[in-house]
């Protein structure tokens, strides 16, 4: 693809190829091994890496799914695709290829989250968490239950203090007031783990009126919500990617009078936390609510995406009395690593 004076599109294609090759080597995979994992002939992968064939959306998605680059490979493709679409539109030809009808999944994939929207809202001294997940069963067995994990850490920068606090003020199942549904059907739930700071609950694809398992090849949407007092919840909202996730939206919502400041980080079990790759957006609703949203189409399996915040305005109802919990300086530094919820 190279010329003596490459165009922006050519340079973007070369950047994609370089990133693709870098991650293939990083994962210790030969072209033949990677081609087999992606479901392609080895010659095709070799041609793309050599620049003899241009990358496609399907190729980039499969590469990201196998290489798990944290979105780097997919990001390079999107940059190339955007430049190519712009260049083609200038000469009156279709800007992009037809969309991929069904996103390819690696062999052996089970349950897939096609879209997750998770929102944490502060209302009257409590936080309310609402999660909606569009699920697809790409496996070979019916899905009859779904695991939900809820954990609290009031003082993530001080584990000893946090442990004492939650020992004296344990999170209870009753206060969570968990409700769940699947495509409008109420879901029953069963406790798996019940600790002071951690609840793991199985959402069952059944209720008193019958069962509704998610069979292979089928899709459905589940939704669940729960509440927790501000005296038990730290200033963070984190999503752990435990299943392949195509679209992820994380939102936090506060009364605007609190003057919230929100930032985000990404981390994993093997890497230090880094800022989110894309910015958080903010909207102000007509009823005086500040809504902060972040979205990605490149969520990496086993990574964590976290929104953190502090308040510069009036203290929330139910706030713990310690003055240092609500710092007044408008430019207080971000807190250190906080654990998942």
UniProtKB/TrEMBL annotation:
Molecular functions (GO terms): DNA binding
Region (Disordered): 317-341
UniProt xrefs under SMART domains: HTH_XRE
Positions of the HTH cro/C1-type domain: 20-68
InterPro entries registered for this protein in UniProt: Cro/C1-type_HTH (IPR001387), Lambda_DNA-bd_dom_sf (IPR010982)
UniProt xrefs under CDD domains: HTH_XRE (cd00093)
Chain ranges passing through the membrane: none
Protein name per Swiss-Prot or TrEMBL: HTH cro/C1-type domain-containing protein
Species of the source: Dactylosporangium matsuzakiense
